């Protein structure tokens, strides 16, 4: 087991708690050490701000081998996300309000009024409903995470993947912030879409290709 990965998990758990992105009963994060096949994940029903190295749960092939508290019940979701994206080693599952509101509506997100969204996110697919803590929760995750590093879980919340925890958290906070502003914008008026030609120009500039989405 690697103490530095436990420290990394504790650091980001505290940060997400401070930002109000995870609660005692909601949200969980994990880091995967692919070399050792070890998953470091937050424990269940523990305030993330109070997390310590010894309370980080460590799993090997789904079996807990470390940590003095029981692993999050959503470890199956984390394992499925990491299996779907072998290029990623970090997962954040959260119930942040603006993104989760879309999940409550079973509505994928694809907006064209935000340069940040078009450059950094492009699309947020929505998985169909599955009961929390069961394999049903990640049905369709392979396809969803092929399209995006972030996906909604219908009637539940959101899941993000990243090559490391920093990029994973950055994506979640960016997506939540954009959707918060989008919501405010819809109260002011009708958000104005960037033209298809300008979207293509953004794609060429930031991604070096001519894809439209
Ligand atoms: Zn959840």
Automatic annotation (TrEMBL):
The keyword Transferase is annotated on this UniProt entry: no
GO MF annotation, one: metal ion binding
GO cellular component: cytosol
InterPro entries (alphabetical): Aldolase_class_II_sugar_metab (IPR050197), Aldolase_II/adducin_N (IPR001303), Aldolase_II/adducin_N_sf (IPR036409)
Domain of life: Bacteria
Keywords recorded for this protein, A-Z: Lyase, Metal-binding
SMART domains per the UniProt record, alphabetical: Aldolase_II (SM01007)
Gene Ontology terms: biological process: pentose catabolic process
Leader peptide range in chain numbering: none
Domain Class II aldolase/adducin N-terminal: 7-183
PANTHER family: 3-OXO-TETRONATE 4-PHOSPHATE DECARBOXYLASE-RELATED, FUCULOSE PHOSPHATE ALDOLASE
Name of the protein described by the UniProt record: Class II aldolase/adducin family protein
Organism listed in the record: Acidilutibacter cellobiosedens
């Amino acid at each position: 087991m690697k103490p530095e990965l436990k420290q990394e998990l504790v650091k980001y758990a505290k940060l997400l708690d401070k930002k109000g992105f995870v609660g005692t009963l909601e949200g969980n994060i994990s880091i995967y050490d692919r070399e050792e096949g070890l998953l470091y994940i937050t424990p269940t029903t523990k305030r993330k701000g109070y997390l310590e190295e010894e309370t980080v749960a460590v799993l090997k092939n789904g079996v807990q081998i470390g940590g003095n508290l029981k692993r999050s019940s959503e470890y199956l979701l984390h394992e499925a996300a990491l299996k779907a994206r072998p290029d990623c080693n970090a997962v954040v599952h959260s119930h942040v309000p603006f993104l989760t509101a879309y999940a409550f509506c079973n509505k994928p997100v694809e907006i064209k009024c935000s340069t940040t969204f078009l450059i950094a996110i492009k699309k947020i697919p929505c998985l169909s409903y599955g009961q929390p803590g069961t394999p049903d929760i990640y049905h369709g995750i392979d396809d969803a995470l092929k399209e995006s590093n972030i996906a909604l879980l219908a009637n539940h919340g959101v899941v993000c993947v990243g090559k490391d925890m920093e990029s994973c958290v950055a994506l979640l906070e960016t997506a939540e912030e954009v959707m918060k502003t989008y919501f405010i914008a819809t109260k002011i008026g009708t958000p104005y879409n960037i033209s298809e030609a300008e979207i293509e120009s953004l794609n060429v500039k930031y991604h070096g290709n001519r894809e439209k989405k």
